[in-house]
Amino acid sequence: MSPDYVDHNNADAGHGPNVLRSHVAALLHTFPDFTIEIEDILAEGDTVVTRVSGRGTHGGTWMQIEPTGSVIHVKGINIDRVSNGRIVEHWGEADTVGMLIQMSVDPFSGRAIGEPPTPR
């Protein structure tokens, strides 16, 4: 990983390996048993794309959602730019809507699925 590493999903986090370390620490706080499996990996020039699937138990607060104990399955795609054998830039997308639904949270309102709406 380059000392100039940038995660474009969290550009305000700064630069360098600590950005990724913080992201992984937060992920493991929320899903302590989280595992990732690489489904596909493609490389061309300085770009590497990985399609991944992850699994973990929701054991910590995430997006202000208290732990549910639900086992979450998520798919994602990562795009990394590599220079001199080190990751320099990262972009990633994950199915967060699917994760919310697996936690029984309505992705549009943030309320528990089946919870009546708050009167206006």
Helix content: 10-25%
Class from secondary-structure proportions = alpha+beta
Number of strand elements = 5
Order of helices and strands: EHEEEEH
Quick structural gist:
The protein has helices at residues 17-30, 96-102, and strands at residues 6-7, 35-44, 47-57, 71-83, 86-94.
Question: What does this protein look like?
Answer:
This protein has 120 residues and is of the alpha+beta class. It is 18% helix and 38% strand. It contains two helices and five strands, in the order βαββββα. It has a five-stranded mixed β-sheet with strand order 1-5-4-3-2. A hairpin with a 2-residue loop joins β2 (35-44) and β3. The N and C termini lie far apart (50 Å).
Give me some keywords for this one.
120 residues
Strand and helix map with partners:
Elements: E1 6-7, H1 17-30, E2 35-44, E3 47-57, E4 71-83, E5 86-94, H2 96-102
Parallel strand pairs: 1-5
Antiparallel strand pairs: 2-3, 3-4, 4-5
